[in-house]
Prior knowledge:
Blueprint: H1 2-14, H2 16-19, H3 47-51, H4 57-66, E1 68-73, H5 77-90, E2 106-108, E3 120-123, H6 130-134, H7 139-148, E4 154-164, E5 172-175, E6 184-185, E7 189-195, E8 206-208, H8 239-243, E9 248-249, E10 256-260, E11 266-268, E12 277-286, E13 290-291, E14 317-319
Antiparallel strand pairs: 1-10, 2-3, 3-4, 4-12, 4-14, 5-11, 6-13, 7-10, 7-12, 8-9, 8-11
Amino acid sequence: SLRHRQLVRMASKQKLLDKYPLQPGAKDLSLVHHPVTSDFLPTPKTSSDWAKFKLSDEQIQFYHDNGYLTKIPVLTEAQVDKLKEDLATISNPDTNPHPAQGLFYEFWSNESGDPSNVLLHALGHWRVTPHFHDILWHPAVLVAASQLMDNKPVRFWHDQLFCKPPHYGGCVSWHQDYSYWTRTVPMAHLTVHIALDDQMVENGCLHYIPGSHKWTSKPLPIVDQHFGDMDAFPKILTPEQRDQFRPAPMLLKKGEAAFHHPLTVHGSFANKSEFPRRACVLNFFADGTASDTNDQLLDGVPVYPPGAKLEGQFFPLLYDPKDTPVE
């Protein structure tokens, strides 16, 4: 049952720090709320510097109409290479764990459990490696994120990795992100999916259902906790929603990003090609978002009681448009 899989998932999460105790020299980068590298990100200083990262009115309207905005260039090839170097240090924990591997909120070497459909899925790498930490402060991401959230200040929620190896890479079944996030209120969230490889239909690129963010004001139920069944989600749709269920592939180039609304239905098919398909994901919410649970929001994070504003060590304020210079 779904509830049984949820309990198994919780037990797996709780054992992570036990399985990978922190090693000498391990640093928890969630304690540092500014970039730790000196040459990874651009450093805009003037209003014209910041303006280079702004979306156009037409792009913002497309997002509100369709529930997503795609092919936004955010990383250079050199920046992607730095992230891939970091990724290599955390991808094989059973044979070569990172000294801070235990700081992940979740780490699944293969979330599907099926060796013919492998999906590495992780949360919390911003705490572990310097470049995955610093990308949170990337102005090319934050300026656009604020614009798409009605120019509100941007706080960090959590990150994710989705990695599909060649030939036997798994799928990520159809879902809405806020279905997993109802423990935070109000719904004022945004997701940024950044391609670390060229994404094609053949290697399991991201797909969106245009306009699906307008189907309901509340998220639809979770039908597949581990993302493995591409056929489960359409079964819960109304006939009208099924008529509108027309997947649009996002053919992202390496270093490009897709931004999407928390109710936009999305997923990706298996990778049976000869190419890897790796992506890092940044999830944000508007400043002022609060807890709506007495449980931990993420494994290893202290409990925020219902109504408590999400801030502090694990939910840093990343960008406030009022703080950018005006000429």
